[in-house]
């Protein structure tokens, strides 16, 4: 009996947050939309690489798509803290629908050129600067603090379920209906989120008024708040390291699939589905954990496991082994990301959460251009094996001094 109670205390219903009607609508809409997003995430790099045959120019797509996050995230946080997150999401999701529809039409008519992808990726990046931290910070308004970790994990679960389904569908669609179909499907899928948002009635959390009405002062106030909060600061430093060097799969995997494993677009899609499968299992694992909150182990140890898995992936030569180690990488990466996200939100005051999540987005997604450039240059200069290995090694090398510092400071 005691053993049973202990197990029940440690593991919970992984779908407990869905009992909240608002979150249920939001989650279903996102599940549909994310499948379309992952179809585009597969089609876009394959299209760019087919047009250019250059790993560096391929990496440039990721650079321009995430550079706006690097530049504008801090300003986005102020807007998010002051305005309705629901209204912000309606605007960002509508804009994303239009941008992807334009790309779909360009590809369908046969007029697409590399510079079109660059411009539209930049536009999508500007929209995502506002969209990503808003999607992260609205969860607590939909489920409350008690179920925040579960809600975040369910979001990760839907993201990674889409990462399994989307690439597999994309590979088939690209093979039988053409690349344009993937972009059309993604554009239409944004309507699912918009419909769900119209059914959601969000009651904003109470928050203290901002100390200043000046933009720069508010940014400084948010940064000072993070710096003075030891848990927030340490977590965000680790997120910066992992966020820079781990999620460079859109650069590394298509080149690895084509040049090393000699696969076509279907093989590329299957490899990304493997990674999505591992990530989904990782999200399910986090969702079933106790509501007591995230553990430090997942934040400070899993980055080493992610780094090691990336290195091993780079030196596989058999398709199924590559898929397995991509799945392992995805598993540990999502455990880390969900735990870090929960830690940051649970340790943020309501009046600072938008700014804190904008900084989280800045270091997690905004660092992607640096990681893409790093991976792209090394892959172009050497090969995709070296690209994978260098990204994994960078995580391990940078985490070692951070752990030494933490041990000396005993925090």
Automatic annotation (TrEMBL):
Name this protein carries in UniProt: Predicted arabinose efflux permease, MFS family
One Gene Ontology cellular component annotation held by this UniProt entry: plasma membrane
Transmembrane stretches, start-end: 25-43, 55-76, 88-108, 114-131, 152-170, 176-200, 231-256, 268-290, 297-313, 319-338, 359-378, 384-405
Organism: [Clostridium] fimetarium
Membrane protein topology class: Multi-pass membrane protein
Family annotation (PANTHER family): INTEGRAL MEMBRANE EFFLUX PROTEIN-RELATED, STAPHYLOFERRIN A TRANSPORTER
Major facilitator superfamily (MFS) profile domain boundaries: 22-410
GO molecular function: transmembrane transporter activity
Entry-linked Pfam families: MFS_3 (PF05977)
Keywords assigned: Cell membrane, Membrane, Transmembrane, Transmembrane helix, Transport
Higher taxonomy: Bacteria, Bacillati, Bacillota, Clostridia, Lachnospirales
């Amino acid at each position: 009996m005691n053993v049973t109670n202990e197990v029940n205390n440690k593991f919970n219903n992984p779908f407990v947050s869905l009992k909240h009607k608002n979150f249920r609508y939001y989650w279903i809409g996102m599940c549909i939309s994310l499948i379309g997003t992952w179809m585009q995430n597969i089609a876009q790099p394959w299209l760019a690489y087919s047009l250019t045959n250059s790993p560096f120019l391929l990496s440039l797509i990721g650079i321009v798509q995430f550079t706006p996050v690097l530049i504008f995230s801090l300003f986005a946080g102020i807007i998010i803290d002051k305005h309705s997150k629901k209204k912000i999401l309606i605007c960002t999701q509508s804009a994303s629908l239009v941008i992807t529809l334009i790309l779909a039409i360009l590809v369908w008519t046969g007029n697409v050129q590399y510079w079109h992808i660059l411009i539209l990726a930049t536009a999508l990046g500007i929209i995502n600067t506002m969209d990503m931290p808003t999607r992260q910070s609205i969860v607590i308004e939909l489920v409350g603090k008690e179920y925040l970790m579960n809600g975040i994990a369910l979001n990760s679960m839907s993201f990674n379920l889409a990462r399994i389904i989307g690439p597999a569908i994309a590979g088939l669609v690209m093979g039988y209906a053409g690349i344009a179909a993937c972009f059309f499907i993604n554009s239409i899928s944004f309507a699912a989120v918009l419909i769900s948002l119209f059914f959601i009635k969000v009651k904003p959390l109470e928050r203290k008024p901002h100390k200043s009405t000046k933009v720069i002062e508010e940014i400084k106030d948010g940064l000072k708040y993070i710096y003075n909060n030891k848990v927030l600061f340490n977590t965000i430093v680790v997120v910066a390291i992992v966020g820079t060097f781990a999620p460079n799969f859109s650069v590394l995997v298509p080149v690895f699939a084509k040049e090393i494993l000699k696969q076509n677009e279907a093989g590329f899609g299957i490899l990304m589905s493997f990674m999505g499968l591992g990530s989904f299992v990782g999200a399910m694992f986090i969702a079933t954990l106790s509501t007591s909150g995230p553990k430090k182990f997942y934040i400070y140890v899993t980055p080493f496991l992610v780094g090691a898995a990336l290195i091993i992936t780079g030196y596989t030569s058999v398709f199924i082994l590559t898929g397995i180690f991509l799945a392992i990488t995805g598993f540990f990466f999502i455990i880390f990301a969900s735990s870090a996200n929960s830690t940051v939100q649970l340790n943020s005051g309501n009046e600072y959460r938008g700014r804190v999540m904008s900084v989280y987005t800045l270091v997690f997604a905004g660092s992607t251009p640096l990681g893409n450039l790093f991976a792209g240059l090394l892959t172009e200069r050497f090969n995709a094996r070296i690209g994978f290995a260098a990204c994994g090694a960078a995580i391990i090398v940078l985490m070692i001094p951070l752990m030494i510092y933490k041990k000396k400071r005993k925090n």
